[in-house]
Amino acid sequence: AVQETLVLVKPDGVARSLTGEVLRRIEAKGYSLVDIKLVEAERELLAEHYAEHEGKPFFEPLVEFMLSGPIVAIRVAGDRVIEGFRALAGTTDPTTALPGTIRGDLGRDWGLKVQQNLVHGSDSPESAARELALWFK
Ligand code: CMP
């Protein structure tokens, strides 16, 4: 079924000029760009976006990292795109993410407090609906 998901190119991806590469992979897979914008996120938005991680040791460093520079927010549509984009992104840890994925090919482990892993993709239809409503009000 056709779905929509939220993709974020995180501050490390934007700073490394990898936005075009991420868009290229999304389009090459056959997904459609529905909306896109450059965002300087506010703390409140990030706290809502990452509400499920509140209280975890990486929560504060994660929010600080996401405040460190602009983010590209993208509304992407396609058949099973929620699962499909997560497959394109690869697993959370860029060191062990499989080659062929965005994180596996391009992600670096800097030994920092939080995984600077280039992209975010919604993990379920419920998350996608919630996150799209937050980032595309
Ligand atoms: P993402 O899956 O987009 O959303 C949660 C983020 O938290 C994740 O990407 C990583 O950037 C970060 N993260 C998740 N787990 C850890 C962890 N164990 N240590 C550090 N950062 C993490």
Automatic annotation (TrEMBL):
It catalyses: a 2'-deoxyribonucleoside 5'-diphosphate + ATP = a 2'-deoxyribonucleoside 5'-triphosphate + ADP. Pfam families: NDK (PF00334). The active site is at H120 (pros-phosphohistidine intermediate). Its EC number is 2.7.4.6. Its cofactor is Mg(2+). Residues 2-137 form the Nucleoside diphosphate kinase-like domain. GO terms for molecular function: ATP binding; metal ion binding; nucleoside diphosphate kinase activity. GO terms for biological process: CTP biosynthetic process; GTP biosynthetic process; UTP biosynthetic process. ATP binds at K10, F58, R86, T92, R103, N117. PROSITE patterns: NDPK, NDPK_LIKE. Keywords: ATP-binding, Kinase, Magnesium, Metal-binding, Nucleotide metabolism, Nucleotide-binding, Transferase. PANTHER family: NUCLEOSIDE DIPHOSPHATE KINASE. Belongs to the NDK family. This is Nucleoside diphosphate kinase.
